[in-house]
Structures are given as C-alpha cells and as structure tokens.
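User: Sequence recovery, please. Input:
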C-alpha cells in the first residue's frame, strides 16, 4: 500500500499496524490469522490495543491495555493515534482528536452489545460496529449507526462522514433533522454535512469523495473482534479507490 499521500503521523500508525514496521506484532498476527482462516476466533481484548505519540485518557497518558469505560474521554495530540476496542466496536482515532465514549443513553446487553452516544469534539475517527444503535455526534452532524462502519472527520465548517458499509441516518446536530438515510456496500455515499445557517450554497448535505481511510484499516479493525468486512465476502463489489 502506497502511504506517501497520508499525513506523517498516520503513515507511522499504518506502517506499525499493517507492515510490521513498528510496535504492533499482536495486531498483525490477528489480521494474518483472520485472513488465513475465516472461522478462526481470537480472544477479544477490551480497551486500548495500540497507540502512537501523545494519547490521553481522561487527561492522563494512556497505555496499551487501558480499558475505556462509558463517559471516558480520549484525546490525541498532533503526533497521536490509537486503536480502542469497546464491546463489539473498534475505533481508530487520528491525530488531534477528542472523543467522549458512551456518556449518554449507554446500554450494554448480556452479549456485550453496546449502544449509546459517541461525541466527537474534534479530529477524525474510523469505527466498525457490531449490533448497535450508536450515534456519532459532532458539532454539526449526527450519524445514527445501525451495525456498520463509518469514518468521520470533524472540520471547521463541516463534518465529513463516509458510511463504509451498512446503513446510517445522517442528520443535523443543530436542527435535529434527519437529512438522508444512506445504505452502502463499499464507500458508496460519502457526504459533507454543514450547519443549517444558509451560508453554504449547496445546501446542508452534499456528495463527497472517499477521503483518508482504507480497506486495509477496516480489515484490521474488524479482525480485532473476529469479523471481516462484507466487501471481502465472495461476490462482493470491488472498490478501486481503497
């Protein structure tokens, strides 16, 4: 995979996770085993799986193995990235991110399925989800997840959201209105979502390109919870941009 077009801190994390150039042999072993045997099951480890650079959990330096509980806030610095498992969900946080996990409407079933609200104040995050009714909420957009994968980037004037596969309701945080329900198989409907202030000529939601996340990362995240993306199933549509 050509990493030359990615942010330097992101190149470090991807290499370490996927190319064995850094500190993640355990994750690479999980991915390799999942690829070799679709029925292989590895123990699911909760909490921080890997991190790079400045990563803080509730204001304190995070370390591998730290469990992330409802209401916890994870922040990454300009050189920071991390991978976190919560129940059947896995999150990859980019640099300069601030994410509060499941402080509101938190529900966990006996099977470990978690639903609730994930608040993104800043940054970017790629998430893969098991059974859930989780909402990712940014200052401008709300993404209502229904068991899917999603990449969200909180920008100064808009929120970028790509539902990589599955179904999600894309809405306005400000008005509470659902703007569009997308059903995707392979990065079919990336969108920009704007504040409802009338300043954006194209309206409150518009089509976008697939930006800054890859199928390799999705495979890695899904493997941590013994799943594989639906686009790897036999007969699934290919996507040339990932």
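Assistant: Recovered sequence (242 residues):
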């Amino acid at each position: 995979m050509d990493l030359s077009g990615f942010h330097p801190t992101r190149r470090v994390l991807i290499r370490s996770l996927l190319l064995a150039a850094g500190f993640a042999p355990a994750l690479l072993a999980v991915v390799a085993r999942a690829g070799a045997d679709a029925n292989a099951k590895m123990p699911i480890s909760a909490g921080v799986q890997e991190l790079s650079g400045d990563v803080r959990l509730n204001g304190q330096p995070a370390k591998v193995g730290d469990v992330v509980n409802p209401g916890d806030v994870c922040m990454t610095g300009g050189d920071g990235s991390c991978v976190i498992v919560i129940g059947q969900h896995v999150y990859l946080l980019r640099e300069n991110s601030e994410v509060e996990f499941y402080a509101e409407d938190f529900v966990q079933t006996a099977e470990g399925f978690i639903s609730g609200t994930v608040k993104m104040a800043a940054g970017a995050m790629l998430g893969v989800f098991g059974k859930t009714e989780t909402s990712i909420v940014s200052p401008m957009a709300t993404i209502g997840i229904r068991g899917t994968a999603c990449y969200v980037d909180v920008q100064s004037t808009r929120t970028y959201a790509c539902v990589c596969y599955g179904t999600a309701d894309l809405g306005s945080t400000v008005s509470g209105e659902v703007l569009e329900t997308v059903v995707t198989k392979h990065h079919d409907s990336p969108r920009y979502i704007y504040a409802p202030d009338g300043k954006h000529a194209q309206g409150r939601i518009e089509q976008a390109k697939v930006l800054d996340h890859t199928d390799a990362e999705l495979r890695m995240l899904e493997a941590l919870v013994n799943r594989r993306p639906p686009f790897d199933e036999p007969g699934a549509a290919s996507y040339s941009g990932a």
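The chain has a mean pLDDT of 83.
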